[in-house]
Amino acid sequence: MGKALRYLALAGYVVFLAFPLLWLLSTALKTPQEMASLHPTWIPRAPTLTNFADAFGEQDLVGSGLRSLVVAVATAVLTVVLALPAAYALARYRSMINRIALGWVLVSQVFPFILIIIPLFMVLRRLELSNTLPGLTLVHVTFVLPFALWMLQGYVRAVPRELEEAAAVDGAGRVRSLLSVVAPLLAPGVVATLLFAFISSWNEFLFALIVLKDPDVATLPLTLVKFTGAEGVVRLGPLAAASLLATVPSLVFFAVIQRRLRSGLMAGAVKG
Amino acid sequence: MTLTADRPARTVTPNRPRRGGRQGRETLLLMLPALVPVLVFSVGPLLYGIFLAFTDARSGRNAVTSFVGLSNFGDLLADGDFWASFRIGMIWAVSVTVLQFLASLGLALLLNQDLRFRGFARVLAVVPWAMPPVVIGLMWRLVYHPDAGILNGMLGTEIDWLNDFSVALPAVIVVGIWTGMPQTTVVLLAGLQSVPKELYEAVEVDGAGVWRKFWNITLPQLRPVIVAITSLDFVWNINQFGLVYVLTQGGPGGQTRLPMLFAYEEAFRYGFFGYAATLGVAIVIVVLAVLGVYLWRQMREAS
């Protein structure tokens, strides 16, 4: 393939990837008048930020954003706290449980959500946790856990066993050697896993839709869908503005840990 | 942390696999915090969900559930709406998986070469992955919008893409490809980079061209990665819900009602928990059958 052709292909791909994003941005900056005109254009004639203000006025973006934040942070922290010891065991010991656990990570990918969500919904209702943020957090943790476990055990494996052994030789106890030798080397992996869990929860829509029926507890994705209106009345400008705002946290986090998350993702996906 | 010569090295080997029950107990202890929630909120519900498929469970609080054997499966097989949704699900899952794979492979091969801007292209490749699926759905609704959408603006058409019987499903498939491509590309790229360079050098001596290198080295070397990612993509796609829910809610007239949208409606709109679970079990059976045949063929060809 000629060099020019290759650049052309690359350009085609970049266009395919970028054009919906640019259109989102363009729509967010347009006035209602321009939106109503029949010939859509890329560049807004009179760029305005009123859509962003309107977005906050029309839906409870702040409240639902905060709720999403709480659920996502709680999910991330809980996931790592629960997964870390297990990941350590997975990476360092060989046992039946390990094989079963890794098997579950794979199996859990195959089953349609509906088989799990209906009983889960019944359980949450019985525990009086449906329509609550703790209930949703619990669901998110359970669903993020397998992959987080997978990521983390990869990071533990990357820490040479010899380091721990050396620490033990030097007289450090098991806990000491874990805290002072393994933990610092593991920190980047823990951060990557935290962010993976955070973004998964922040983005999650389906379980929120099923668990949170009450509008007062809606998370951000649920609120975003409300912009499309119940009777087909769609306010495109505010919808675009709110959508952009909802993407910012993910993008920021992603920019920060892009390389690390990618290697974790690769490790998980390729070894699978 | 230094090991000196006169000190007997490795008198303590804390993590070597050991005989006896201690290691097992330690493992169990470490696994427990993760195991308990997974068992209670995932494995347990899953098993109960499979059980529900054989009952007439309804969503009402006081519903008395009784075992009905295979009658839900009989109802499902006789349900025209199910078959329509099943057909759409297969078209969707197969075309998204295959097209996404082909596009991603091309892209990965491209990004694996020394091209300018490829760093930028790589960063851009992860954007859809980081975006909330709901936002992806809403964004594409803006692109496909009949009046204010850029697609009609560029093509000079007046098509209501997501409400037109003949184009709604293809339009949704494009969004599926757009959404899943980055992840598939990243995985394939990782696979490409793990192919040993010596293999290429060896056949270059024999004067092998680009195509021969691709067919004889790249593709066979990539096979395990390809099998893994296409299998996973297929499973994810057949289980897709949120993206299409936001795009079309299954419309127009059920033209994009994927199996999981069908199941969601049965369970949470009409309250037929048992029937929806039956559909879930049916999908598992189909997925396992499709994957089984696919993996078996791949394994036979590889050996």
UniProtKB/TrEMBL annotation, chain A:
Domain ABC transmembrane type-1: 65-257
Localization annotation: Cell membrane
Keywords, sorted A to Z: Cell membrane, Membrane, Sugar transport, Transmembrane, Transmembrane helix, Transport
Protein name stated in the entry: Multiple sugar transport system permease protein
Claim: Transmembrane helix is one of the keywords in the record: yes
Topology term for the membrane: Multi-pass membrane protein
Annotated TM spans: 7-25, 69-90, 102-124, 136-156, 177-199, 236-257
Pfam family, one: BPD_transp_1
Source organism per UniProt: Streptosporangium brasiliense
Family (UniProt): Belongs to the binding-protein-dependent transport system permease family.
InterPro entries attached to this UniProt entry: BP-dep_ABC_trans_perm, MetI-like, MetI-like_sf
Location, primary (coarse class): membrane
Taxonomic lineage of the native organism: Bacteria, Bacillati, Actinomycetota, Actinomycetes, Streptosporangiales
From TrEMBL, chain B:
Record keyword Transport present: yes
Residues that span the membrane, as ranges: 28-54, 90-111, 123-145, 165-190, 222-247, 267-296
Protein location: Cell membrane
Keyword Nucleotidyltransferase: no
Family the entry assigns: Belongs to the binding-protein-dependent transport system permease family.
Domain ABC transmembrane type-1: 86-294
Taxonomic lineage of the native organism: Bacteria, Bacillati, Actinomycetota, Actinomycetes, Streptosporangiales
Protein name: Multiple sugar transport system permease protein
Ranges for region Disordered: 1-21
Membrane topology according to the record: Multi-pass membrane protein
Keywords for this protein: Cell membrane, Membrane, Sugar transport, Transmembrane, Transmembrane helix, Transport
Main location: membrane
